[in-house]
Amino acid sequence: MFYDLHIHSCLSPCAEDEMTPNNICNMAVLKGLELIAVTDHNSCMQQPSISEAADKAGLKALFGAELQTSEEVHILGLFAKLEDCMMLQKWIDTVLPVIPNDTGYFGKEEIRSGADDELIGIENRLLLVSLQASLEETVDKIHECNGRAVLAHVLDRENSIINQLGFIPQNLNIDGLEVKNDEQKKEILQMHPWMNEKDENWFTDSDAHRLIDINEAQHSIEISLYQELWGNAL
What we know:
This protein has 234 residues and is α/β, with parallel strands linked by helices. The protein has one domain (3-229): Alpha-Beta Barrel (TIM Barrel), CATH 3.20.20.140. It has helices at residues 21-30, 47-57, 82-95, 135-144, 161-165, 182-191, 223-230, and strands at residues 3-7, 35-41, 60-68, 74-79, 110-112, 119-122, 148-151, 176-178, 202-203. The strands form 2 sheets. A 7-stranded mixed beta sheet has the order 1-2-3-4-7-8-9. Helix 6 (182-191) links the parallel strand 8 and strand 9 (202-203). Helix 1 runs parallel beside helix 2. The longest helix has 14 residues, at 82-95. It is globular.
C-alpha cells in the first residue's frame, strides 16, 4: 500500500489553512496513495473528521498525533482504531501545558468537519509546546492506548531525537523510525551498531504542511507489516 503517515491538518498552527480533512484526503487520492495518517501537533481532535473524510474518499486511514515530549523529541503515535486514538487525547489533556495560542504569531488551530470542511471548533491552547511527559512515558502511553510509536524525522529538524539527545536509547520501545532516504537509514545504523536493519521498521513520510507536499505514490508498506503493527483492520 502506498502511504504517507505524517501529514498535518489546519489544526496544527504551522500548517496551511488549505489542510482541511477533505482537501487532504482528496489530494492523497489524486497522488495515488492508499493509506494516510494525519498527525497534528499534540492533538487528536481532528481525527473524527479525518475518519469521515477518508471514508468518503475511499482511503484507508490510521489515526494519531505528533507528540512533543519533555525532551522536545517528536514521536508519532499511530492507531488503527479511532477510539484508541481518542483515548490518547484524554491523556494529552492531562499533560499539555495550558498556554493560550497567539494566532497572530503561531497560526490558527482549527477543527474542521469531515462532511464539508466547515469550521466546527477552535483549539485555544497552544499546541507547539512540550508535553509534561518524558519520551519513555509517551511511548508507554501510546502502547497503553493500543497504538504504535514511530520516531519522527529521526535525523531532520531540531526536534528529532538525534538533534535533542544525540542518539537513540537501546531500551526505547519504539515500533519504527521515520527517515528521508536510504542514506539516512545507513547513517542511523552506523551510529547504533546494536541495530539490525531488518529488525527495524522504516517509514518515509512527507511531514506535509501544504497539500502539494503530501507524498506521491513512491513509498509502500507491505500488508503483512501493516497487519503485524496494526492488526487486520484493513
